[in-house]
Specification:
Elements (H helix, E strand, L loop, with lengths): L5 H14 L9 H17 L5 H32 L3
């Protein structure tokens, strides 16, 4: 799953390259490309999900929690009816 889109990854790599001291900046585009490659490799290792997938799972969890709460209330009701008083 992609954590960042290509343009934001390019922007981050560019900002990292710009933060390097002037004496090292002579490597220019190579440095920016290397930053981008390292960032992509490290992000690929992370166990990430897309925002859309996260939102879907959050909605499923909310529905499941609501059903569980409803079933718990019904169970208490049934238990109250069946318990000797």
């Amino acid at each position: 799953m992609a954590f960042m889109n290509s343009s934001s990854l390019d922007d981050l790599a560019r900002r990292l390259a710009d933060s390097v001291p002037e004496s090292v900046r002579s490597f220019g585009r190579d440095l920016e490309g290397n930053f981008k490659a390292v960032l992509q490799a490290q992000l690929a290792k992370l166990d990430l999900v897309s925002r859309q997938e996260f939102d879907v799972q959050a909605a499923i969890l909310a529905r499941t929690k609501a059903k569980f709460t409803e079933m718990e209330a019904r169970l208490k009701e049934i238990d109250a009816k069946l318990s000797p008083q």
